[in-house]
Structures are given as structure tokens and as C-alpha cells.
## 1
Amino acid sequence: MLLLIPGPVSTRPEVRAAMAQDYAPWDNEFRPILAELRARVRDLAGGTAETHAGLPLQGCGHFVTEAAIRTFLPPGAKLLVPATGAYSDRMIRLAREAGRVPVPLAMDPHAPVNAEAVAAALAADPMIGHVGLVYSETGTGVIHDPAPVGAVVRATGRRMILDAISAFGALPLDVSAQPELDAVMFTSNKCIEGLPGLAFAVARIDRLEASMGHAGSWSFDLADIYSMSKRTGPGSFRFTPAAQAVVALRVALDIYDAEGGRPARLARYLANADALYAGMQSIGLHPCLPREVQGPIVMNIHAPDDAAWNLQRFVDGLKSRGYLISNFYNTPMPSFRVGCIGAVTPEDMRGFTIAADTVLTEMGVRNREASRRAA
Ligand SMILES: *Cc1c(COP(=O)(O)O)cnc(C)c1O
């Protein structure tokens, strides 16, 4: 079964095979594996040992985003969040429930974040200390480049946290060139094609040291993770980790390096998105975004405007042909979404296109124009 979803992604058999062993996380065989991984992800983000730490946290992307909010924003502090879509909404909720004050910045979700609008919002409210940006908005598929947004954050002396969960490992990132970034967050199971179970932040050491005691949570405190690893070494976890996911991630990063690293990963995803976009058009369907704003991570495609359309039946039909897509959508109008990331190729996208064409015909869908019914 090929997962065509924006995480957890299809993985290579070598990655899954790495799980077939038991590990004790405090054992001397395991600790160097974790220590090496932390340095590797820090380096991948563009960090250095002097300035940045790679911090592992058990669990999913939401957990590490909450941890970054709690660690770097004191209770009651304001977080400006450009309203890019479903995942910026999640950051807003995480901030609110952690007792911080999210300030949504309304914007056109189908265009990249406008750095000037961020600058204006920061100028209008001197109490806003941080900006929280979603790099690849998985709700829409639009990419929001952190470099121009970061430049205005830096120029106004503010700080930034970056949800790079569906971007890290494929889209460009250099935390050393963006010192305004307190932390960049990502997980093991998206563009670096590991298994689910592990999240990371790459964070500035000076900011970690200045942020002790903010979190109001022991579980979700990046500063505590940092200080513990200074005491007991970078191979140690505070609590039991998904040890097999750690070992599998090492294999996934070896494959990543062998493929040619970040540029090769991005090139494959771009080729996947090209093949998918052209494929959907070739069978009469309509991607939701114009080609020039469609990012390489996830694509929403308008549901066909036909009474025979049914998302779950479409998903089931595709599944019987070996392709699994999401059975929900995040767009205002009915759509289906297809992930372009994971251990998949343009050839897989062409196979998916044929399967989608066949399933629509079997369902009796005749009109493939975009649905105009509101969801
Ligand atoms: C997947 C994703 C998340 C959340 O990840 P979980 O691991 O499901 O918690 C957050 N932000 C973005 C942009 C994502 O794509």
C-alpha cells in the first residue's frame, strides 16, 4: 500500500526493517545513535554546535510546537500568527491553551505570507514578542518562505518560531542565517521519511538558556531537555522514547544522504507534484491552486461536481488498487488531497492518476468539473 498523504509518509523497507529489534534507551549501544542523530538534524537545519541544539521530544508535531511555544514565550506573551490555514489555526489553539496570547494575522490563504503585512502588524503592537509561521501550510499546499518574514522580524528586534513540520528536509532552511529563529520544529515522519514517534526542535542555545522556567510543563519544556542533556550527555532522553523510531530515523537519514540530501529530496517532490498536477488535469480534474502557488508537499484537488461523487467511496476504490489518500479535506469547497512526499516517485503519481481515472468511472462520475456546492 502506498500512502499518498502528507504524513505519516510511505517509507522504504530498510527503514521499517530497522525497527525489528528491542532497545533499551539508556544502553551504551543506543546512546551514541541518539547523540549522532541530534547533531545530524542540527546540521541539516544549518545550525552549529556552538549556537544551536538539536532537541528530541517523544511524540508528534503538535507536541513539539506546544513545547516551543511554552519554552520561548513566557506565560501571557503575544504570538503573531499569519493565518495561513488549518495548521496555523492549530498553532493558535496550542498557544491559547498554553496561556499565551495568539494574535491571528488575517491574510489570503492562497498566496504566500506578505512580509510587509507582518511588519505592519509588529509595528502596530509593540507587545508582540514573537511570530509563529507555518513554513509549508499542509492545509492549503502553499509554501511560506521564512526568509523574508524572518527579515522583518529581525529588523524589528522580535523573535520567531517556525513550524517546519511538513517542510524540513526538503525546503531550504538555514537557521544560522536567521538568528531571529528561536526554534524550528519538525518530526521524523514527513520529508525525512522516517517512522512516526519522534519530534525535534533545532533551537538557539542562548535562547534556551534565557528561557528556563517559562514552560509551566515538565513534559513540554525544551529548555529542560537541553539542560538535562548538558548534565547527562546528548545520548540521553528524559523519558522513554520510541526507541525503534530513533534507530529507523538513522537509516532514513543514511538513505537521504545517499539520495543527494536536501536538493535531491526537493527535486523528487517537485517532480512528484508536477506529475500529479499534470495527471489530474489530464483526467479532467482541477487542482485547487494555480500551478505557480502550488507547493511540492501536498495538493488539494476539487471534488467533481457530480451526484455520484463520494469521498469515502473514492478512497476505498483507490485503496483496493494500492493507493491510500486522506478521507477528509481542509478546503472550504469539497476536495480531496494527495501527498507528494514520502518514498514515492513521479511514476507512482502516474499510476495513481490511472487508478483515480478508473475509480471515478466505476463510481459513475461523469462531470469532473470543480464542485460548486459549499461543503
Ligand atoms: C503534520 C503537521 C503538523 C502536525 O503533526 P502531528 O505529528 O500530526 O502532530 C503540524 N504542522 C504541519 C504544517 C504539519 O504538516
## 2
Amino acid sequence: MACETRTTCPYCGVGCGVIATVDDAGSVSVRGDPEHPANFGRLCSKGSALAETLGDDGRALFPEVGGQRTSWNTTLDLIADRFSNTIAEHGPDSVAFYVSGQLLTEDYYVANKLMKGYIGSGNIDTNSRLCMASSVAGHRRAFGADTVPGTYEDLELADLVVLVGSNLAWCHPVLYQRLAAAKASRPAMKVIVIDPRRTATSDIADLHLSVSPDGDVALFNGLLTHLAETDRIDQSYVAANTTGFSEALLSASRLSMAELSEATGLSGMLIRQFFWLFAGTERVVTCYSQGVNQSASGSDKVNAIINCHLATGRIGRPGMGPFSLTGQPNAMGGREVGGLANMLAAHMEIENGDHRDRVRRFWSSPRIADRAGLKAVEMFDAVADGRIKALWIMSTNPVVSMPNADKVKAAIEACPFVVVSDMQKNTDTARLAHVVLPATGWGEKSGTVTNSERRISRQRPFLAAPGEARPDWWHITEVAKRMGFVDAFDYESPAEIFAEHSALSAFENDGLRDFDIGAFAAINQKQYEELAPFQWPRPAIGATKERFFADGRFYHPDGKARFVPVHAALQPVERAHGSFVLNTGRVRDHWHTMTRTGKSARLSTHLAEPFCEIHPLDAADQQIRDADLVKVSDDKGHFILVRALLTERQARGSIFVPMHWTDETASRARVDALVPPDVDPISGQPALKQARVSLARHAPAFHAFLVATERPRILPFEYWAIAKADGGYRLELAGDEPENGFEAWLNQALGLDEDIEIVRYRDMAAGDCRILALRGTRLMAAFFASRSPVAVSRQWAVDQMLIEHDDAKARSRLVAGRPGAGQPDKGAIVCSCFSVGAMEISHAVGQGCRSMDAIGQLLSAGTNCGSCRPEIRRIIDAQALLAAE
Ligand SMILES: Nc1nc2c(c(=O)[nH]1)N[C@H]1C(S)=C(S)[C@@H](COP(=O)(O)OP(=O)(O)OC[C@H]3O[C@@H](n4cnc5c(=O)[nH]c(N)nc54)[C@H](O)[C@@H]3O)O[C@H]1N2
Ligand SMILES: Nc1nc2c(c(=O)[nH]1)N[C@H]1C(S)=C(S)[C@@H](COP(=O)(O)OP(=O)(O)OC[C@H]3O[C@@H](n4cnc5c(=O)[nH]c(N)nc54)[C@H](O)[C@@H]3O)O[C@H]1N2
Ligand code: SF4
Ligand SMILES: [Mo]
């Protein structure tokens, strides 16, 4: 009998409900949960491919110390001893935890409790510092608490949705689909996208503002001024529910329209259109994400946006409000338990003596951190200079994701004692650790997560843990008990932790704190197992609320919201000649450092190597052609090597490089090595989207493409990038020919034996070299090298590993690197669910399929998860343009 489990997707903050089915043979399939209020059955490409990422390959299966397998008991004793001894000798601030918005709430709660309440230091910070800290700071300044007032439904009810620094179509795809569906059913609804790049999201936008990097504060200050000048301020709301309006308006009004144009890089006409739409529409939701948060002015951007909503009273009502989109599945839960170094559990404040006393009394703990701990960037600085001597990293990969990543790497290497808890054994960070603790992952662990709309959902296990992997909460509580805190960490299950967390949220609350889920303070195991998704608050007594601030009451002591006066830089920072702004972010089908999505061949078809998007005119200036390799460097000698992708969707003067590639997946593409550790002074969040770099074409002796059934053991090339493919791997390579030639290298790298038949072709004059390795009728490897970027169809070559090659003709086609007649080249994969390529879609459009539905009927593309629909639309539109010319 197949067994179904309701759980929650472990990727983005949309928090979709998933039904996982394990059949009799033990194989897993997933589908969207039609009853989950976040997604009503939909899943995006990453969610749909979850079952493909569950394999044991690369998993950490046993505790390891110094690379050697050990027992749990000795390992936990060792960690407890090292932490206790370090604290005894150097004080509580000599140790630190660096945790993650991908921990479950229960894991997070005990980590925070151990550090702040028992070790007595504030030194627990999280990758949410790189993600949500500016939103948290902005909310606290404006509302007196870190409250997200709205719900997803508000995006559907709004007449205008403004997306600031958010690539919703790729990063919150199911929410994007809800928005796209609402707009399709109500065409009067407008969408504005404010992003320097023309992203997949801007394809549904009525207006795309290609704002210059960090032009957002100027733009929203201009909007506030416009609202005041055109008499759109809700005076009675402002008077009754807020303070500080005139100061905010004064500081907003410093720029003339010409200066505003200069500061934002936008024409006066576009700016006015945006102002009119915002001013004239009552139901406005402004969503913001990393284009806002990850900036040296991130907190000010958040408040510049909130100021406009407060000034018009458009907050806390259906279809209105500022809406911070959370990135990770449990970014919100981490904030609830106080996982940031400057917060305390249950939305209390570490600077507040009463709050500290209350949390300490609730925990009956011997001490409580008496001040904020070190924020992520400061924390790794302290590791680097030896102030922190023992570090525990859980569920995050900072060697890849922190700014100044090479310094972070060196700091971890030099730290006397580093523990890493991860599911995977060979991440760039885990490889440097003294101790690796194997963690259970999605499908194996049990707990709760909170999504962007404050909805708490269960992650439920449906698989046995592999090897000796154990859940994170267990790692932490076992170490805590061994450090002497037996009673306080004596939990049997996540349900007990959740109950305590709920009780703390209600403890001496009396409606003074937004986060209250006291209704669950006495939850038992069975109720926890059955817990349906719910939105907070859920106080023990009194009503829950769908939206915060509907009554005009905020969490500052006087109950009023604050306008925050923010200043815009008059002009964008000057760029030196030949330098570019380095914008970084995400692609549709990969998740961060790819430790999980990288396991799925399907998810690797969309974009399979690290790249750099450049405007064609900028590229021409630098003599860079499409598909060249480029060297992107900072002024300190750090550089990466990535593929050039020329696109007019990129604004001039700025390039875009994704954050996903690591030392596991490419030779030199960790983009954070180039990002300096500049932070927002209020939130401490790094400015990850505005580094300064220069660009140069890189001309290697040869370029090559390889498909192989095995992962090559040696890669002696200056450039390589590897991705999973159906039946094996696909690699892009470039550099010099290895000393003994390509064939000798292939033999050695793939361990080819005598049974292998080698077919070769070499044209010295043209610089072409092709090598096939076959075992019987099966292709083991196909290698294509050339002096210029290799033109072989990637998907076609990958497909050759799956079929028989029995006649000489098939082999000669293979060496030629060309599909035969009747085997058309699919082109780059657009729809990963059905493996449909761009050339197939173009061809179908040429045959008369002019709508998404027609394409779907013919090719199935876009009919499953829908993540590729913006790209299909783009192909249809591009063909229509061509036809019109
Ligand atoms: N596919 C996929 N989805 C994900 C993730 C993933 O790894 N992969 N990660 C999740 C996580 S943790 C997060 S935090 C979210 C992030 O979700 P998003 O914030 O939507 O994604 P990003 O690509 O980081 O950046 C968003 C946009 O900010 C723009 N931007 C850069 N500078 C500026 C600026 O100065 N002003 C403005 N207005 N815009 C600017 C960039 O061009 C980019 O398109 O995604 C979540 N979802
Ligand atoms: N340049 C640049 N840098 C960025 C960003 C950017 O936009 N640009 N975005 C930033 C943002 S918003 C974020 S959120 C970060 C994300 O950056 P990271 O958090 O470093 O990236 P992940 O790959 O998600 O790392 C999660 C790790 O946890 C492991 N893991 C998964 N599940 C579990 C579990 O249940 N338990 C344990 N113990 N381990 C688990 C995974 O294998 C993986 O190694 O990157 C930040 N860095
Ligand atoms: S939108 Fe996609 S990645 Fe995000 S929670 Fe839903 S299925 Fe998962
Ligand atoms: Mo994030």
C-alpha cells in the first residue's frame, strides 16, 4: 500500500504544502497539496523535483572527526568538552553558532536557548543576516516589532502590486503564479516591477522601472513627496496612528525631479507614471525582497517603502500593505525564536532588561546574554582574528554564501575548533570542519516552518534516516546536556520543544507582543502530528487576526507607528572607467549552493554552468562575445571565471552573476569571493548586490564539452563546471591541453579499461578534437574540444548516453557532434518538467502555436509546474516581433 504524507516544501518562503507518496517499492513521488492555503496544489520546478534530490550520494552518514568515522557518543562528548573548556578559559563570547533559516523552528529554538540562556552569549547569528535583517530592522523601526502585516491573498485582492527588488517568477514561483492568475482574471489589475534587470518577473509587469542600483530610497522618497504634493496623504490616519510624518517628509523632499531622475536612472515620464499609479490606487501591495534588503541602505529602503503605506493609511486592510517576502523556508520561524544575534526569543528585544529578565525567568536559566552578539560579518571577523575559538555551523554553507568569501574560508581554516552539521559531507564548508555531524534532511525530519505570510506548517518525515544521521535539535540538545544543562534540554521530541516555544510566546504577553501562539502551549504529541497549517497570532484566549494593524495599533509603547526619515544619496556612486556593478542572485531551478538541487539532472538542464549576464554594448566595449569566458575581478586580486551571456535585459554598467556555483561544481565561480563585506549600518546585512568589479575576455587555448557516465576524478583545467545529467554528468571545460593529451587524461580521469572502444577525430588545423568512449553499444563518454566555444547541442549529447549506438553511422554522427536527420536539436531546455527546449518551442510557434495553451497542448511545456511560463511567453513574443518586422 502506497503511503501518503502531508508535509511542506523545504525551499522557498512561499511554504507550499506537499504530499509525498512512498510506494511499495520504496520510491517517492511528490505533488502539491490541494488543501494547503499557500499553494492550493501548485508546485514549482524545484518543488516538483524534490523526489529526485533524496538520494544518498554525498550524504554525511556518520559523525566524523578529522575525516575519520567516530561514534555519536565520543563526538558529542568532544564537542561539549571543547565548547565548555573554551568558555571556561576565554569566556562565553569566545564561542559562536552560525545557523540558518533552513533549520526547523524546533532546532532553531534550542540552538538559541543554549547560546543565549545557558552559555550566556549573544553569539548566535544566522544566514538570515544575509537575507532578512534589513526587513527586520525596518519593521522594528516602523512598527515596534518585526511584523509582516499581510497575507498572500492581499496580492490577489490588490489593484496594484509593486515588486521591488524581487524576481518573484523565479524565486517565489507559486506566489508569482497566484499573482499572474489574479491578473489574468482581473486585467485591470496592474503590476510594477522595480529592478535594474528586466527579469522573468517583469514579463507580466505593466511598468518595469530599471532603477539604478540603490536608487530605491530616492524613488520612494520622491513618491512620498508626490503623495504630499498631490494631497493624497490620509491626514486623519497619520494623526491618529503615527508619529514623525513631517520629519520624514522633510528628509524625503530634498530632490528635485531632475535630481530624482539622476539618482534613479529613470526618465521623469516613467517616474511620474509610477507615482500616478501608486497615488491613484487605494489597494496597493508593495512586495520587496533582496534588491531591497541586501544593500548598504537596505533598512532605509524598507522604511522608505513603509513610509508611503503609512502616509496613505494603506496597511492592515485587504489588498494593501508593505509585504516583505522571506527567502528561506523558515526565515520567519528563525525570527520568531530570536535566532538573530540582536534579538531575543519570541520577538523580545535583547537590549530590553525587562525582556531579558522575562526570558531568563521562563527558562529558569542560570544567565542570559546581556547584550547583542556579533552579526554574521563581525562574527567571521572575530573567527579570523582569534576572538572566537570554537564555532558551530548548522545548515548553511558560508564559504560560498558569505561576502568576502575567501576571508571567511581562511578564518574557518584557522579556527581551532569548527563543527559543521549538514546533510551533505563534501560542501565547501564541511570539508574544512574538524567535526562533521550528519543531519537528517527533508523527508526524514520532523518539525515546523513559518512562511512569508506567518503560516506555520509541519514538515513530516516519511523516510528513514540514512546511516546514523540525526536531527539538528538532537545534536544540539545532546551537546547541551553534556555541557551540564541536563534538565533544560531534556526533550523527547520536537513536539515538546514546540509546546515550550508556544508557551514562551504567550508568557506575560497580554497582547503587548505580536508573536503569540499560546493556543499551542499544551500541545501533545498526537495534536502536533496532526497540526494543520495555521497563521499566527493564535493566542490562548482572545481572537486571532488575519491581518495586523487593522485597528491602527502598533507595537511601540505609545501604540503608534513611526515614520522614519531616510536620506537618499543624491547620485549613484561614480564608477571608475571600465568597472561594473556586480549584481548577484538566483536562477530558476537551483537552490543556493546546490547541495540538493544539484542532485537533480532535470533541475540542471535549465542553466548548467556559471555565467555572467552582460549588456551587448558593454560586452562590445570589452571585446567580449556571447559564450566567451570572462574573468570578473575585484581590485584586490580576487577573480572568477564564468561564461558570458549577452542580453539586453541587463542594464548597462551592471552585470549579473548567480550565487549558486561552488568549488564542488566549478573551478572558480564562487561569486562571493568578489563581494566586499560592506554592510547596512542599521541591520548589519551585507550589500550583496552592489560590488564593484572589472571584466575581461579570457581566451583559453581550447574550449571543451564532455558528457560522461562517471564523474571525472581529475580536472586539470583552469575552467571547469560540472552538472548532473540523465545517465551521468555534463562538463564544460577550458584551458590548455593536459600534458599527455586529452585521451590519456580521459582514460585516467574516467578509469577507462581495455573493454572500451575509443573513436577519435582530430583536425589539427582547425584545432578540433573529438573522442568517444563506448562500451559495447553504450556511450561512456563523448568529448568535444575546439579553439572557440564548442557548438555541440548539449541536450542532444546528454541524450546519447541513454541510447544504443549499434551501427557505424550512429557513431560517425556522434563524432560529428550533430543530430542526424529526424533528430532535431531541442536547444537549451526551457521546461525542465518535460525536457522541452527553446528550439522546439520556437519551431512550434513558427507552426502556428501562438499561445501558452497551444504550446502546452502540443509539447506539454509549461503545463506541470508552470515555472517556465514566463520564458515560453518570451519566446512567443519574440517570434511575434520577428513576424511583424
Ligand atoms: N530558484 C530559487 N528560488 C529561491 C532561492 C534560490 O536559491 N533559488 N532562494 C530563496 C531565498 S533564501 C531568497 S532570500 C529569495 C530571494 O529572492 P529575490 O530577492 O527575488 O531574488 P534575487 O535574485 O536574490 O534578487 C532579486 C532582484 O533584486 C534585483 N536588484 C539588485 N539590485 C537592486 C537594487 O538596487 N534595487 C532593486 N530594486 N532591485 C535590485 C536583482 O536584479 C534581482 O533580480 O529567493 C528564494 N527563492
Ligand atoms: N552574492 C550573494 N550572496 C548571497 C546571496 C545573494 O543574493 N548574493 N543571498 C544570501 C541569502 S539571502 C541566503 S539565504 C544565503 C544562503 O546561503 P547558504 O545558507 O549558505 O546556502 P545553502 O546552499 O542553502 O546552504 C544550506 C546548507 O544546509 C544543508 N542542509 C539542508 N538541510 C539541512 C538540515 O535539515 N540540517 C542541516 N544541518 N543541514 C541542512 C545543505 O546541504 C547546505 O549545505 O546566501 C546569501 N549569500
Ligand atoms: S514556490 Fe516552489 S520552492 Fe517555493 S515552496 Fe513552493 S514549491 Fe517550494
Ligand atoms: Mo535568503
